Amino acid sequence: MPSLSRLELQHFRSYRKASLQVEANRVIFVGANGAGKSNLLEAVELLGSLRSHRTSNDADLIRLGATCGWIHGWIGTDGLEHIGLYLRQRGGRQGWRNQQPLSRQMDLLGSFRCVCFSSLDLALVRGEPVLRRQWLDRVVLQLEPTYGELLSRYNRLLRQRSSLLRRHGEASPRHHLTALLDAYDQQMANLGARLHRRRQRALLRLDPLARSWQKRLSGEQEILSLLYHPGTELPPGLDVDQGNRDLVAWQEALRQQLAHQRQVELRLGTCRIGPQRDEVMLQLDGQ
């Protein structure tokens, strides 16, 4: 996987302009509080994952008084590939690759691998399940950039279906509503099963690594386990690395459960089945 060899910032956080040449495998930033060390690392995180662990508002990323900001990166030891992320004060980003605008910023994903660690990561253990789902999604995005498109499509369907459920409340489903919900259920089952499979596959690959490092750090005294609890009752014994046959079984299971829960969901106005209900469990010595 190519690495970042050069970074340039314009009107990003505290920087009016900055340039960094990465010439070693390990780089340590040293400086006084408020010097901008975290801002440099945040820029790398944003360019590599399109996310910041500190804010979800792009306006916070742009230097005070500026209307826009830039993050430029050069990839590989030769630095021949140039990527960029253009930030606007009023929202809306634009990804660039080799001086050409991209139709989707998500096409930047996979340019180089980026993993962020911070004190805020304690929330993975103590926080709500949504934080662990978001962490796992970021991991899968690094491994499979196409996952971002699947997740975006599923979340859009989820919002539309939830809005439909709330509008109709407890009213008995009429024929056109039943047909519409059937169509939503089929699409959500198709996408949801693919999300389930990718999340579980990533966690199965991470679990032995986490287990090995925890044993090493604890002097062989502790066993860490990462467990995936899907928000859908998936058929047992299916292989996440197999092809379409097992995927179809997962899709059908999700579709049937959505149909079975329909009356309850109409009454509550929310979707109770699917990847948005997933949980990632971190267990130490089985607890």
Q: What fold name stands as the CATH topology of the largest domain?
A: Glutathione S-transferase Yfyf (Class Pi), Chain A, domain 2
Number of domains: 2
Low-confidence stretches: none
Elements, N to C (H/E):
EEHEEEEHHHHEHHE
Q: What is the beta-strand fraction? A: 15-25%
Structural class: alpha+beta
**H/I helix tally:** 7
The CATH level-2 architecture of the largest domain is identified as Up-down Bundle
Number of strands: 8
Q: What would CATH call the homologous superfamily of the largest domain?
A: RecF/RecN/SMC, N-terminal domain
Which word captures the global form? globular
Query: Strand sequence of the main sheet, in spatial order?
Result: 2-1-3-4-5-6
Distance N terminus to C terminus?
36 Å
Reported for the largest beta sheet, the result is: 6 strands, antiparallel
CATH classification class of the largest domain: Mainly Alpha
Radius of gyration: 22 Å
Family: Belongs to the RecF family.
GO biological process, one term: double-strand break repair
Subcellular location: Cytoplasm
GO molecular function: ATP binding; single-stranded DNA binding
Question: Characteristics of this structure?
Answer:
single chain; 287 residues; alpha+beta; Rossmann fold; Glutathione S-transferase Yfyf (Class Pi), Chain A, domain 2; 2 domains; six-stranded antiparallel beta sheet; two-stranded antiparallel sheet; 8 strands; 42% helix; 18% strand; cytoplasm; DNA-binding_RecF_CS; DNA-binding_RecF
